[in-house]
Amino acid sequence: MTLLSDNRLNNAVKILAVCTVLILAGICFAVYKSDFSSFAVFIAFFVFYVQLPGLFVLRMLRIRFDHISTTLCGGIFAGWALEVAGYFITELIGTNILLYAAGPVCSLLFIIAKYMNRECDPKIHFSFSKLSTALCIFIVLGFLYALLNTQYLYLSPDVSDFTYINPDKGYHLGLIDSLSHGWPLESPWVQGRTIHYHIFTELLYSIPLRLFGVPADVLLLTCGPFMTVYIFGLSLYSLFREMSLRNHRAGLYCLALMLSNIFIAKGPHNSLAFFFIFRNENAVAYGISCMFMFIVLFKYWYARFKDGEKSINALILLVVVTMLLTGIKGPMALVMIGSVWGTYVIGILIRKVPLKTIFPILLMTVGFLIIYVTSLGSKGQSNAGGSSIFAFATIASVTFYKYPLVAFLKGIGIPKVIRLGVLLTVFMVFTLTAFILPFAAGYIRELVLVFSGRKDYEFTRILVYAACLVGFAAMFVMNYSGHSQVYFGYAAILLVPLVSFWFFEDLEDNKGLLMNIVRGIFVACLIITSCTLAAQYKVMIEDAALFADDTIDYSRYECMTSDEYKAMIWIRDNTPEDSLLATDRYYSDSLETYSYKDRWVNRFFLYADYSNRFCYIAGSGYNLPADDWRIRRDMIEINDMLYDPNNDDRGRLARNLGVDYIVVSKDFTVIPSLENKDYDLCFTNDSIDIYEVKGGK
């Protein structure tokens, strides 16, 4: 008998994992001074306004999944959709009573119904001894990654002279605050403008701010990492468990994905995919998780629909999840809807899918279009950008080291067509890392077997293959602004491991030489990428620790000084909410080099009060489409007059514009004192001067 049995060892690892998570969480509050009371309020909100109400919705629709992970995941997104609906109904009736009451009432009804019918309900119990050890390790690594990229860099001024809060975070913080004040979503940066965006994540965050006063920065930068790891880890595990033949390996599959470090080549130690998944302001993790739930729920619905069973309840939830996915991340919803239609058309052509399937697919499409048109496609949000229809070159530039490779290929005289082929091959290798070979082999094998009739046409499984194809094609060809271009690819990339695992499962009993070689290559790739990940964690930990070192020269895009942070707090506490602020920071770009047509240059740093105040010039690049560059030019040129010490008429100009406060960024702009009969210096420190315009509010 061994000294330590496998079961005891597994339990020891699980206990260690739980302790590690608690320690990591404790660091947030004890070392990095996060607001624990606000975090506790958010946890209560998530449980009683999202999770339990969502489980109540599943119960009312009589939808029962076979595993607790899928049940919890379905409950999250059902509850999320319920909160979104409650938000818009609240705006119609003009009172918050529905938002206050709906969650607790549904939670109470669920608890009562569960208790009253405990003998009839399916016995799905949580057992610590049966919890996947690999899943526990995956959660710890994901949690560490999330905290290192978010919470551990977001420092209060009493911890460090710098804090990690870049313009991207400020933008989303502004959306959260603006949504907490009601609909339509007003721009916190350009007065009189509304925003249409992927805003259902910000909308959910805005509700605890609206009801309980949890600050937007706590919601995004402290609560966000916890919620991200929980939802993403749960949905990924559910996907592998529901869609794999060897569902007992779901936890191992999750860990393999983490250790493969997909989409690795953003930098020497930074995975672009993981960076966006676990960094919270872009809500990629929630979009991916909702997409996973869509696939699992589609399988659940289609199995009943195909067999002629009652499936209307599952279809209702499927349409709702489609709408929610669109509001969280429109490009991912577009990939899924396109994949559903492609799978349906192929199934019709080979006579494997009934014609009547078109009606529920039409319902999903209508749900997608309703949200896409109202939330993403209205005036005020520019999605398309650039003139090229082929975006592969741009995408390749941010995912691996393209330029040295191109220079090398040109240097040895390789023709352009062959160079493009090499670039595409290297792109796929760097993007899919350990999964490139099994994915390619599995994809081709599935096509051959299905179209030759040697394998059944499984709609949901083919849907996953179609999503990979549609996602990659959209990423390469479509030309969207910002990060939206990459989101198409994420929809495909996060499904690639599932296809790879299918390949190994299908050939599980094949002991041939070829299979052994493929397995050996896969293991070698996994070991290499795992070592890379270990090095990456080491560098990230060092980066996080360096934030306490005042001698380090930080990126001004990524950080702000504690003096700037204190100025934000002063504005929040000492100015009216409807103030209009003028700012002189064009984000390190002088007017001599500033391009009016570049909508990504003009950034702003005063995020303390976010959308409660408006800014005359700041952040207009986010809200003004490229065709409105003349508005931006006029704003900048007029704004300069407010900062001209030789302009004796600047006070009258400020009052005519409605500007109440003039904010001077002394770290970027050398301006003598502006104080005069119209400007009253009301705040100053080493980084910021703030003047109140006399005769204003």
Q: Descriptors for this entry?
A:
single chain, 697 residues, mainly alpha, five-stranded mixed sheet, two-stranded antiparallel ribbon, 7 strands, disordered N terminus
How would you describe this structure to a colleague?
A five-stranded mixed β-sheet has the order 4-3-5-7-6. Strands 1-2 form a two-stranded antiparallel sheet. It has helices at 6-30, 36-60, 68-93, 97-116, 133-149, 167-180, 200-212, 216-243, 250-260, 272-278, 284-306, 312-328, 330-349, 358-376, 392-399, 402-411, 416-432, 436-451, 459-477, 484-493, 496-506, 513-546, 562-574, 620-623, 629-642, 650-657, and strands spanning 162-164, 559-561, 580-583, 614-615, 661-665, 679-684, 688-693. The radius of gyration is 26 Å and the shape is globular. Helix 5 packs across helix 10, helix 11 runs antiparallel to helix 12 (312-328) and helix 13 (330-349) packs across helix 20. By secondary structure, it is mainly alpha-helical. It has 26 helices and seven strands. Mean pLDDT is 81; it is low at 1-5, 379-389, 587-592 and 596-603. The chain is 62% helix and 4% strand.
Strand content: under 5%
Amount of helix: 55-70%
Which class best fits the helix and strand makeup? Answer: mainly alpha
Q: What coarse outline follows from CA principal-axis ratios?
A: globular
- The gyration radius over C-alpha positions equals 26 Å
Distance between the termini: 81 Å
Largest sheet: 5 strands, mixed
